[in-house]
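hiii, so i know i said id send this last week but things got crazy w the move. better late than never?? heres the sequnce for the chain we talked about at the cafe, plus the structure i predicted for it. fair warning i was half asleep when i ran it
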Amino acid sequence: MPRVTIEEELCKGCGHCIGTCPKRIISFAHNLNAKGYKPATVTEDKMDDCIGCGSCYRMCPDSVIKVEK
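okay and structure toks below
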């Protein structure tokens, strides 16, 4: 089963991954990271919907997303 990991402390909250996810499982976190940004996140209840397409990590300008199949 695919799994998305986002390094939330390094995320700048640009939202590119959110807009490109075909399953719409990525959203902004409710909290701020140490840099003051709302990072992208995938909640555990939505992780099962991931299809492992990799669109999110290809769109991330800072390479803080990893998709494991």
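btw The chain has a mean pLDDT of 97. thought thatd interest u
miss u guys!!
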